[in-house]
Amino acid sequence: MKVKFLYPLTAAALFGALPVSAANDPLLRINVSGVDEALEKNIRAHLGSLPESEVQRRAFLFNVQDSVDAALQSVGYYHGELNQNLIRHDKGPWELTLTVSPGEPTRIDWVDIRFAGEMLNDAAFDTWLDGVSLRPGQVLNHGNYENLKAELGAIALSRGYFDGKYTKAEIRVNRDENRATISLHFDSSARYRLGDVSFEGHTLDEGFLDRLIPFEHQSPYATRRLSALNSRLQETGYFRSTKVLPQLDKAENGEIPIKVELDNRPDHSIELGLGGDIGSSSDSTFEPRVRVTWRTPQINSHGHSQETSIEWSPDRPKFLTTYTIPLTHPLDDQLKLRLGLLRDKYGVTQVYEPEDLDFRNTGQLESSKQLLGVLRQQSLGDGWLMGYSLDFIRESYTQFDTDYSPSFLLAGFSLSNTVRGDATLDPKWGYRQSYSVDYADPSLGSATRLSRFQAKFKWIDTFFTKHRLVARADFGLNLVSDGDLALVPPSLRYFTGGDQSIRGYAFQEIGPYIEFTNDDGQIAREVIGGRYLAVGSLEYQYYLTPSWRLGSFVDAGNAFDKDKFEPVVSVGGGVHWISPIGPIKLDLGVGLTETDTLERSWRIHLTMGSEL
């Protein structure tokens, strides 16, 4: 180890003829005065890199006048004056002081933009023209002119005007009067059309992917249409990579054929997710969560797929598998078959200790659920999804020292809409709204008649780049007769608490309770959940960097029964890392409300995943 460490030092001593500090000293220092910061920056940019040898220094000094003139003229100053003062030091860098007097600026007299060809009937160019910022009276800036010219050309290419050209593109400057005119005349010629689309590299049935094409044959060319096709192909989950390539060299009669190159995903993939809560509420131990998800993105040539997830936590193991069958459309119409075995805990159970004159926690309401269901989900456009389902549920639990095992056949209807401001896992703005109705009836094999209504809302917006607000509201309603409340399984009741509800409390531990005498003759009480739910949250987030932010929040609400709404409130904050796989959030929540079954508490929540 010592030999390897000393060797580079020896090499540096042999080949480094100059001390490090001397080798890094510049040969020339430049001071600029007489202009504002923006103009100074432009002058230094035109001067270029500082010289690194004496030969380069001589050439640099020779070109200073031309470089400064070019810098001034590029932003409309054609009568600038430059005074140079060079101090040659025997040792150390020379010093060059540039005193610049820019003079009167040249202003734009008029701007002449003209179109010809099929672009005259294209509203996109009218919209672009309305947004042009060059106006008479402004100081001439050649950079702004070049940007405008490039922008118009780029729009023309993106909309299929591949034969378009400038018939006139110039700036005329009258130096005597400090006036300039700008002319941009563009002839688009004819607009190309989208031709046949061919798919290569897939193993699906012929014609299966054609249903994903979001445009008609011979539609006017537009890159956004090709981007939409690419996005749809990626959404299917079948492909590791997709390339949508317009074949301009094979265009005939104004039609451009489109070739799509596809690379299938591996036959199987495994995803691991980790999370956990720790705190001081009813369960004060650390509660880890581990989820393993196995996906088969394409089972056969018909596009069937499956996703199986196994989630482990000490008291809440879950198994759920979903088999997806595309119906009339690979994305917009799907049939999902679901099978699940789930164990969960709810609320808190307590017994009264006479010697302590207080209640002691003894556990939670436990349930084991079997699920077999079918769901058809259809896209209605503009981000709306409609679904209707039929689920068979059998759930076993012990409540008030009585064993229950009711069965339900739930018919459901849902409607949801999600809008994202961008395609990232941490969108700058967007919103989600979802509504669902479920119904069970004894005549169809259910333990009791139950009508269930839910509505959920979430809204995200970012202000002034670094300031982000996240608002959330969840509502629920169960209609069931008073005598049949105990037959409604815990998974269909409403509880609050947890990282997606009221932070600072454990998952699903808050709700209305009932006091009774247990089989041992003790006074006991049990949080059994409510018929109603109303929970809201408001969170402010501040970006320290694009990848790190701080958050602070207030959560409030509760699950409740008739005329018994008592809001539970928590506050807190945390640190969020915007990782490549989505935001990872470490939050501390502090409960401000003490209920009959819970004292004020705190919990640390670790979560991962997109907020929409």
TrEMBL record:
Domain of life according to the entry: Bacteria
GO cellular component, one term: cell outer membrane
Chief subcellular location: membrane
Domain TamA POTRA: 30-102
Pfam families found in the cross-reference section: Omp85, POTRA, POTRA_TamA_1
All residue ranges annotated as the Bacterial surface antigen (D15) domain in the record: 412-610
Homology family: Belongs to the TamA family.
Subunit structure: Interacts with TamB to form the translocation and assembly module (TAM).
Protein name: Translocation and assembly module subunit TamA
